[in-house]
Amino acid sequence: MACKPGGWIESFEASPMIYSDDGTVKDDSAMAEWGKFFTEGGKKLGRVFTPLDDDLQEKGMEEAGFVDIQTLKQKIPIGGWAEDEKLKEMGSVSQVSLGSDLEGYVSFMANLLLGWNTEQVIVYCAQFRRELRSGKCHSYYNQRCVWGRKPEAS
Asked: What InterPro entries is this protein classified in (predicted)?
């Protein structure tokens, strides 16, 4: 399906990198390792798993000739630590989402691309879940929504 002149498209991406502004995501933590699965695995696959971090959304739309490009950037908490009620709810949802299928997220990259065995995946996922449930990490990930309009035919 093609976008007709005057039509709009939207690109929504979440970064695989997990951050904290207060240092509660330590460099040696499972959360800090999370993004490395996707950046390293992507390199081995010849694919990009970081279009947000590589700023590809806006560039792609501009190169495709779209106009009126707008961007919404958000920090999405992981867990219910945020003071704002809406962010707290979003954080609770992201925590459940991340914790519910860690092995599914991690296995392909860790086993096939990075050479981890099953035991290493299980240990990593257990550590990640401990960090998720601890409530001590004020972790978040970035997401970005970019939309633009295809110019009218001239």
From this structure: SAM-dependent_MTases_sf (IPR029063)
Q: Which two tokens stand for residue 57?
A: 């959304």
Average pLDDT, integer, range 55-62: 93
Report pTM.
0.86
DSSP state of 132: H
User: Rounded to whole angstroms, how far apart are CA atoms 106 and 96?
Assistant: 16
Q: How many Cα atoms are found within 13 Å in the side-chain-facing hemisphere of 151?
A: 9
- Per the listing, tokens 């962010």 go with 87
Residue 46 to residues 84, 105, 112, 113, 147: CA-CA distances in angstroms? 39, 18, 14, 11, 26
DSSP, collapsed to helix, strand or coil, labels residue 141 as strand
Backbone angles phi, psi at 29, to 5 degrees: -85, 160
Q: What would the pLDDT profile of 41-56 be if each residue is shown by its tens digit?
A: 888 888 888 888 888 9
Q: Return left, alpha or beta for 16; rule: phi > 0 is left, psi -120 to 50 is alpha, else beta.
A: alpha
